[in-house]
């Protein structure tokens, strides 16, 4: 009986962790004060962003995070690279969530370009319209989406953050990654 419970627990854990966003932050072995401060801020932003993504999506991605002072804000790409620059105002949950969406395909895949051009987001559009009304549409431009792209700090709210992840999840279901 005890073995059965342990096995059941193991299987449940294995099934919930099989599709997840994971990340690691590359750190200097002997960080400067600037690096140590940045690492703390970046880790907090990533923990919050990944926790929110985990609540609303089953997306799977391994993200390699780096601190690169020369990056003006932050950037990310579909191969899973996410970089934060030295500007502390971008080391936050909103920026991390926005950049995670790029690692999942926003502005990064041929499917994104094709579906944006055709406005071919069936389930994502249905979801968006349930929030914003019958005429709402997903807008794409410059490798970004709106509404709910979290492109700027003034877009941040708990509701918008949750909707961002739900919308990205629906776009994944619609074929965002190709």
Would you kindly provide a written description of the structure presented here, covering whatever features stand out?
With 178 residues, the protein is an alpha/beta fold. It has one domain (17-173). The protein is 49% helix and 14% strand. The protein contains six helices and six strands. The protein has helices at 2-17, 33-56, 93-103, 110-118, 122-132, 158-173, and strands at 21-25, 61-67, 74-76, 81-84, 139-141, 144-146. The strands form two sheets. A four-stranded mixed sheet has the order 1-2-4-3, with helices on one face. Strands 5-6 form a two-stranded antiparallel ribbon. Helix 2 (33-56) packs across helix 3 (93-103). The termini are far apart. Residues 1-18 have low confidence and may be disordered.
Structural class, by secondary structure, is alpha/beta
Helix content: 40-55%
Residue stretches low in confidence (pLDDT < 50, at least 5 long) are 1-18
Query: Rg, please?
Result: 18 Å
Q: Biggest sheet, open or closed, and with what strands and sense?
A: 4 strands, mixed
Strand order of the largest sheet: 1-2-4-3
Total count of domains: 1
How do the SSEs run, as a string of H and E?
Answer: HEHEEEHHHEEH
What's the count of strands? Answer: 6
- The portion of residues forming beta strands comes to 5-15%
State the end-to-end distance: 45 Å
Shape: elongated
- Provide mean pLDDT, rounded: 92
Helical segment count: 6
Keywords: Signal
InterPro entries: MetalloPept_cat_dom_sf
Organism: Fusarium torulosum
Protein name: Ricin B lectin
